[in-house]
Amino acid sequence: MTVTLTAPETGARVDALIAANLPDLSRSFVQKLLEEGRVTCRGRAVKKSFKPEAGDELLLDIPEPEPLEVTAEDIPLDVVYEDADVIVVNKPKGMVVHPAPGHDHGTLVNALMARCGPDLSGINGVNRPGIVHRIDKDTSGLLIAAKNDAAHKFLAAQLSDHTLSRTYEAVVVGNLREDSGTVDAPIGRHPTDRKKQCVTEKNSRPAVTHYRVLERFPGYTHVECKLETGRTHQIRVHMAHIGHPILGDTVYGAKKPFPGLEGQCLHARALRFIHPATGETVTLETPLPAYFRDVLEKLQKNRI
After folding, report:
1. Of these residues, 15, 56, 85, 136, which one is catalytic?
2. Cα 133 to Cα 187: distance, rounded to the nearest angstrom
């Protein structure tokens, strides 16, 4: 379908103008329209930095929603909280969040489709229904999904203004000098390895991680990490950046895995958000999973 907007004044960027006038469209969806040349002004496609003049007409070619092709799979879920608007699950280590090349089944989305049916938001497209934020395959813990677009936008806004609080626990390599600290370092895609992220000033976004020591062991430290921002692999990149990669992280740390541990020792323990329908604060926690407790037990035995 085609939507026509008229710029009320000069100076506003086209992406901001669209977002202000069409609040039902997410920012990522608007950016996709611009990238695909689906927004035109004066007969030509425009980029997101374009600033229309007062009275300019913008034509938006908004494609019809794609049919959902993700297959529902009856996969057991550890549901921590659920109502008509949101569902919070405790994702196990090893589960991929959404379908992608090489992972077209067995994902959290496949499981959510079976549990919730059509009651998932569609803002993030056909492969990510309901998904508001992600955690890595080998990171365990709490993840929230939205059951409708209004809830999705409300929660996404909390991610943007940092009012959706996420607390993690991790075991890192080495002994942190301070009992607490903050890593404030921008993160962007690695210049040579497109599957990795890195701390860089080039084509990056601000990233802030707060950490606190929970327990110290010879050669390792058990820490709590709180995200102020939510960049891809943020905690893993930041802890490696300060010289303390997460135990078991063979991407950003040592290539040799820790005995008995597959992937990084990182768990999303707590989640706090404002409920999109009631406006009340919801606080959720989940205990450390067995693999994490096993690592701590091994480190405690080595300390004796």
Report:
1. 136
2. 17
From the candidate CATH numbers 3.30.70.20, 2.60.120.260, 3.10.290.10, 3.40.640.10, the one assigned to the domain spanning 2-61? 3.10.290.10
Query: For residue 131, what is the DSSP state?
Result: B
Amino acid in position 56: D
Q: Are 153 and 123 in contact (CB under 8 A)?
A: yes
Distance (Å, whole) CA 270 – CA 140: 11
Q: What is the pLDDT of residues 228-253, one digit of tens each?
A: 998 989 999 999 999 999 999 999 99
- 8 A C-beta contact, residue 68 and residue 13: no
Q: Coil, strand, or helix at residue 137? A: coil
Which tokens go with 220?
A: 């390792």
SS3 call for 97: coil
A 10 A CB-CB count for 65 gives 9
| Residue 134 and residue 144 in contact, taking contact as beta carbons nearer than 8 Å | no
The CATH superfamily assigned to 66-160 is Pseudouridine synthase (3.30.2350.10)
**Residue 288 structure tokens:** 């450390």
Query: Any alpha helices (H) in the chain, and if so which ranges?
Result: 14-21, 27-35, 108-116, 149-160, 234-241, 290-303
Does the active-site annotation cover 15?
A: no
pLDDT per residue over 82-115, tens digit each?
999 999 999 999 998 887 766 678 899 898 988 9
Percentage of the chain exceeding pLDDT 70: 92
CA angle in degrees (0–180, nearest 5) for 162-166-169: 145
Q: Which two tokens stand for residue 14?
A: 């086209």
Pick the CATH number of 162-304 from 2.60.40.10, 3.40.50.2000, 1.20.1260.10, 3.30.2350.10: 3.30.2350.10
- Would you list the domain boundaries of the chain? 2-61, 66-160, 162-304
Residues 276/290, Cβ–Cβ less than 8 Å: no
